[in-house]
Design goal:
Number of helices: 12
Distance between the termini: 47 Å
Radius of gyration: 21 Å
Number of strands: 17
Shape: globular
Order of helices and strands: HEHEEHHHHEHEHHEEEEEHEEEHEEEEH
Strand order of the largest sheet: 4-5-1-6-15-2-16
Length: 414
Amino acid sequence: MIALRIFLLLLVCLLSACASTAQRGVRVAKPEPVILISIDGFRADYLDRALTPTLSALAANGARAQWLRPSFPTLTFPNHYTLVTGLHPDRNGIVSNIMEDARIPSQRFAAANREAVENARWWEGAIPIWTTAQRHGLRTATMFWPGSEAPVHGAHPDYWSRFDAGISESARVDTVLAWLDLDDDKRPSFITLYFNSVDAIGHRYGPDSPELNAALQAVDQNLSRLLAGLENRDMRDRTNLVIVSDHGMTATSPQRVIYFDDILPPDMAHVVMWGVLTGIVPKREHRSEVERALLRPHEHMQCMRKGDVPPRLRYGRNARIPPLLCIAEHGWIIFDRATVARKKHFSFGEHGYDIDHPDMRSLFVASGPAFRAGAVLPPFDAVDVYPLLAELLGVRAEPSDGDIAKLRAGLRTQ
């Protein structure tokens, strides 16, 4: 059954490659393969739990950061797009997991809204690395990644598929290995591989749960599966792996919920997104009342106008960001009672908090011919991963907020 699903997935990917509209430029010298791996929700200190021997060995024998600082908000879609564009969410346009845009009035962006996720208009505030690689004549593939399901700037990756949580993470690894078995003229030089189980389990059971520890062990086994596959193909020593996460995770509790409807009557404003970061659009006739209610001091949350977000967060200028924002204190979450009542189960782990809190720290481990063994880098920002990817692929990076100088000490050639 799994073999059939992998075959069907590869067939879809190959058909999508034939339909790709990418305008390829002059081909650069084909680089060693680059595989960008995201372990969604892998907090930096999970590496210290002695549950991930494969990942720990990669970190010891390659380059690693003390931690990777995510962009604000510390959410999945914004940070995944930051990693592949080098632009903070305020500039790449993916400002939250849930968004509204006056220029796209008939559509609300959300991960569950397939039509929106596949609408390129949401994503075209930036150019992802796979598009840049294609423009330099390289083939690309995404085993899931936010942004890859839309024809951004007119093109998908050469091989891609719609996100399906039902496809096991081992099957995702096998798909990546199958791409590497393609003939040289069809084989992708840049591949993404996305694991979501650690994040999903962290939300449901919390970051300190035995279920989370089991998820760490399972994802490590799938990394081992990937390495064994590369070894069997004589590709382990000539493939560059860049392993990241998008954010960390912190424990939450039903006793740490801020009920928004106790502060503001629901008929006075439209709430764009709930959660750690809550975005509010006051109704015009109630604007002054809403601001008075929200901008005063509150226990366990701080509300502000979007223009007053602290500059270090680099957030608040994009038109998609609601005019008023409320940010929960660490470990707290913002909802109204109706939303809580609709939930099937409470989320005992959350993210979206301040980028400088230790619980939000992300992972960075890199291994392969480009990286120095045993290099430990000081913390750097998620935007800095993008220029590294461009250098590994030998393509000219688009203008970005990233700086590869922070990673030079981890490379063999400086």
